[in-house]
Amino acid sequence: MNVLVTGGCGFIGSHLAEKLLSIGHEVYIIDDLSTGSINNIKHLQTNPKFHLNKDTITNDSLLSSIVDKVDIIYHLAAAVGVQLVMKSPIRTIETNVHGTEAVLKATSKQNKKVLIASTSEVYGKSEKVPYKEDDNLLIGASTLGRWSYACSKALDEFLAMAYWKEKKLPVVITRFFNTIGPRQTGQYGMVVPRFIKQALSGKPITVYGDGKQARCFTYVENVVNAIISLMENKESIGQVFNIGSTEEISIENLAKKIKQLTSSSSEIVYIPYEQAHEHGFEDMRRRIPDISKLSGMLSKTGGFPKHGLDETLKLIIKNFKL
Ligand SMILES: NC(=O)c1ccc[n+]([C@@H]2O[C@H](COP(=O)([O-])OP(=O)(O)OC[C@H]3O[C@@H](n4cnc5c(N)ncnc54)[C@H](O)[C@@H]3O)[C@@H](O)[C@H]2O)c1
Q1: 118 alpha carbon to ligand 1 midpoint, in Å?
Q2: How far apart are CA 56 and CA 31, in angstroms?
Q3: Ligand 1 pocket member 119 (CB < 6 A)
Q4: What is the pLDDT of residue 54?
Q5: Is 178 in the pocket of ligand 1 (CB under 6 A)?
Q6: In this structure, how many other beta carbons lie within 10 angstroms of the beta carbon of residue 253?
Q7: What is the crossing angle of helices 60-69 and 89-110, to 10°?
Q8: How many Å lie between the centroid of ligand 1 and the Cα of residue 280?
Q9: What is the distance in A from the centroid of ligand 1 to the CA of 242?
Q10: How far is residue 279's CA from residue 143's CA, in Å, rounded to a whole number?
């Protein structure tokens, strides 16, 4: 099969491209290298079935010429990461909204199956535990820049569902919870690579807020396998799926765990949200997925695999380049 991965030089996209090639697919990538890196896909470039296009997904003629060639599309390109979103809200909104609009338009002309990568952030400030796909989305005020990412991704979901309902475009929407693994960069605010870098370099490990906020971290390979299975399954069309681990850890305990696993002498320091981000910054205390829908869909292919957090962190630390 021929497959397009937008954002294929990014963290998740590069793992997806690698897996798709390993199971015999021909892989096309469009990536403008804004947050992604050639280093992420260097090892794939000698494969004759790998085709890289360094360009933006809003280049309509390039996008439609590649959509012509492929059978399915994974749309992962986006502006991602709390720090990037806070610093560049215009870029975030425009990339996420116009980019997805361009992808949906191009794929709908040919009626090709497309996966839209969304995020657990769309649940916003909801305090419900765990989050289910049809729960209400509770986005914060538009004066707080951090919500622009969630809002732009929620709009992507609405647009994708509209294409499914009005034009019968086969779409699948996946809400990733915190995904971690080798090649993820801490540059744009991702907590695990940031903590590992601080721990390995002996600098203070900086926990934002009181550290009692908790998250579930998922190994990237599990995410990649899940989205490939969803795209192979006809029943996934027109549906939204949470994808994430259900193993919860507080950010404070994550810092302690990383300090211990790296045998680091770094001290753990707490930085108020206002100092780390912006005045009035809001964060969710807990963010746990209900994955019963995903597990049901994947039951024929062995369900959603569970790599423990310790095992995943050890693997990332082993592969980490300072
Ligand atoms: N990593 C996570 O924990 C997480 C959680 C929830 C959702 N997601 C979603 O998963 C997807 C992939 O995220 P990631 O963590 O791999 O981020 P990433 O930043 O590593 O990857 C995004 C890629 O998109 C590319 N890109 C950005 N704008 C582009 C444009 N206009 N044209 C072409 N390419 C462009 C970047 O260069 C980068 O390679 C995103 O849609 C993100 O919203 C990720």
Answers
A1: 10
A2: 6
A3: yes
A4: 98
A5: yes
A6: 15
A7: 40
A8: 26
A9: 17
A10: 11
DSSP conformation class of 137 = P
- Tens-place pLDDT, residues 98-125: 999 999 999 999 999 999 999 999 999 9
Given a cut of 50, the residues of the chain with pLDDT beneath it are: none
d(CA 118, CA 229): 17
Closest by CA to 198, choosing from 260, 249, 267, 270, is 267
Catalytic status, residue 149: yes
Ligand 1 atom 20 nearest Cα: 10
For 2-180+218-246+287-306, the fitting CATH number among 3.30.70.270, 3.40.640.10, 3.40.50.720, 3.40.50.620 is 3.40.50.720
Domain positions in the chain are 2-180+218-246+287-306
- Do 191 and 315 touch, CB atoms closer than 8 A? no
Helical H runs in 111-263? 147-167, 191-200, 220-232, 251-261
What pLDDT digit, counting tens, does each position of 22-33 carry? Answer: 999 999 999 999
What is the CA 317 to chain-centroid distance, rounded? 20
Instruction: Compute CA distances 259 → 201, 213, 267, 321, whole Å.
Output: 11, 18, 9, 17
**Is 4 close to ligand 1, i.e. is its CB under 6 Å away?**
no
The Cβ-side half-sphere exposure at 41, using a 13 Å CA radius, reads: 32
Residues in the chain: 322
